[in-house]
Amino acid sequence: MELRWRQVSGRGRVSTFVEVHQKWFEAFTDDLPYNVAQIQLEEGPRLTANLVGVANADIRVGMPVRVVFDDIDEQLTLPRFCPV
């Protein structure tokens, strides 16, 4: 199996998601309830992230999304997705 980096479009669709209400991690307490979604990228791979710019109640399987990048600090950037 040959693995390599390749550029992707950043576009995809929600394939599944959950809304988290339990405080599992102290760092996410202020975000409760938050969503965790699996995004099927147009190029094939799936990526787990969360959705921003949409109410949890409005998230749907099949929803088209695009990646946005959230700079947490100077060393950490997280990919998140927003509705198209």
Short descriptors:
globular; 0% helix; single chain; five-stranded antiparallel β-sheet; mainly beta
Please give the structural blueprint.
Layout: E1 11-20, E2 34-41, E3 46-49, E4 64-71, E5 77-83
Antiparallel strand pairs: 1-2, 1-4, 2-3, 4-5
Report the major sheet: 5 strands, antiparallel
Number of strands: 5
Question: What does the average pLDDT come to?
Answer: 95
Spatial strand sequence of the major β-sheet: 3-2-1-4-5
Q: Approximately what portion of the residues adopt beta-strand conformation?
A: 35-45%
- Radius of gyration (Å): 14 Å
H/E topology pattern: EEEEE
Distance between the termini: 34 Å
Q: Structural class of the helix and strand makeup?
A: mainly beta
Structure annotation, total helices: 0
- Basic shape: globular
Description:
It is a single chain. Helices cover 0% and strands 44% of the residues. The N and C termini lie far apart (34 Å). The model has no long low-confidence stretch (mean pLDDT 95). It has a domain at 7-54. It is mainly β and 84 residues long. Strands 3-2-1-4-5 form a 5-stranded antiparallel β-sheet, with no helix packed on it. A hairpin with a 4-residue loop joins strand 2 (34-41) and strand 3 (46-49).
